[in-house]
Amino acid sequence: MDRYYCPDLEAGHLDEAESHHCGRVMRHVAGDFVTAFDGRGEEWKVKLTEEKGKLWHFKKLTSSKSPAPAAKIVLAQAVPKNRAMDLILQKATELGVAEIAPLQSDRVVSRAGDAEAAQEKVSKWQDAVTEAAKQSGQNWLPAIAPLRKPRDFFAEVQKAPLKLIASLQPEARPLKETLREALAASSGKAPHTVVIMIGPEGDFTPAEIGEARANGFLPVSLGNLVLRSETAALYSLGILKYELE
To answer: Are residues 43 and 117 located together in one domain of the fold?
Structure first.
């Protein structure tokens, strides 16, 4: 059954963009059954009733609520080159990440040269996670934070109980080991928020890693191989989901 994003289900209609996709692209007509979800766990099975103006209206048939993940996972991702970010956004959404915080690392030259271009990029990324949620059946939509430098991100997560940074430095400890120690320290209860920072190709700079550690981030290793940024992100998220749920 086709899925459509509707942040206000009680309004009883899709927005203009989703209505266009529903009627003009997917060719739905009145009487068809589709699924609408609000991005906060709520999903309705609905019957399309009429297209009024440019909006498709619907009638609620059944509803369900997907439970929130045990831990809020925040992926702080240094924006990689080319189209790797699209893959990261898609898979992070499928895995139930709560927030994606794109970072402008010193080793990556962002193409978003001004505030307007940066906002356009964030808007594009938000569209990408919405599409990923629609296709995968994920009812929890991750928030996309503004693009910023790592130092500007640290203040936002000061109170997070577990903050990790993937690192190639020799003192970094295995991710699984660090997670299991954190769970043991809390009698097996998952921390309410876990932040994982993933760097660009070649890792964060020593200065960025030092600043992260000064802000409470623990350096973790993802194994003996040097992974591409997108591989490191998906590997880390898979381990976090497995260990925390």
So the answer is: no
**CATH number of 9's domain:** 2.40.240.20
At residue 159, what are phi and psi to the nearest 5 degrees?
A: -90, 0
CATH at residue 208: 3.40.1280.10
Parent domain of 89: 72-244
pLDDT in tens, 40-80: 999 999 999 999 999 999 999 999 999 998 899 999 999 98
The least confident of 11-20, 55-64, 103-112, 129-138 is 103-112
- Is the pTM above the cut of 0.85? yes
